[in-house]
Amino acid sequence: MAARSVQRLGRGLSLGRGLCFRGSPRVFSTAAQQRSTGDECGPEDPHDEPKHPLSDCAIKHKAIKLEEQVRDLTERYRKALADSENVRRRTQKFVEDAKLFGIQSFCRDLVEVADILEKTTESAAEEAEPSNPNPTLKKIYEGLSLIEAKLQSVFAKHGLQKMNPVGGKYDPYDHEIVCHVPAEGMQPGTIALVTQDGYKLHGRTIRHALVGVAVESQE
């Protein structure tokens, strides 16, 4: 009996030692893992700390400043756009005026030729009266009349027109007074006669008409 008890006790001790040795690597392994995990985590980097968010007051102040900048930039853009449109319109008007009035100086010289032609035609008309049997003068008068009519037609084609101010009101922008005549059957201040024709180019006066204005007669 005693021998059997000793054998059982020996078997229990051997089993206990085996369990302890087999379990020890797990204990050591768990401790090593804890140390490794602790080393990897380490102390936190101070640079990784989250920044403090802006307060509501600061955010509102920043939003107001941004809105002011947007309004300022929008106003500048509108002014620049308006200035650009004005420059474009002025340039377009300048180009159009250059096309219309580029021949203004030429027209001033040409109307003087028309004056000479008109006076010559009037002189030929006086000489080519029915009482004068000379057919040559009559043909000259007819030719001059055709030339004068054609010249006035060319003038009208290019926007050059002769003024007909007789009976109208005096206008300092279109007329130049050279004399006064008694207002016989005419209202004072109206144009009674024209000593030199005036001309307009596309509505712009390029030569003033020399006129005589009717005035009340003084007894």
Describe this structure in words.
With 219 residues, the chain is an alpha+beta fold. Helix content is 61%, strand content 14%. It has a 3-stranded antiparallel sheet. A 3-stranded mixed sheet has the order 2-6-3, with no helix packed on it. Strand 4 and strand 5 form a beta hairpin. Helix 3 packs antiparallel against helix 4. The radius of gyration is 57 Å and the shape is elongated. 6% of the residues are buried.
Would you summarize the structure shown here?
With 219 residues, the protein is of the alpha+beta class. It has 4 helices and 6 strands; from the N terminus they run ααααββββββ.
SSE arrangement:
Elements: H1 2-41, H2 56-101, H3 104-127, H4 135-157, E1 160-162, E2 175-182, E3 191-196, E4 199-201, E5 204-207, E6 209-215
Parallel strand pairs: 2-6
Antiparallel strand pairs: 1-4, 3-6, 4-5
Helix pairs in contact: 3-4
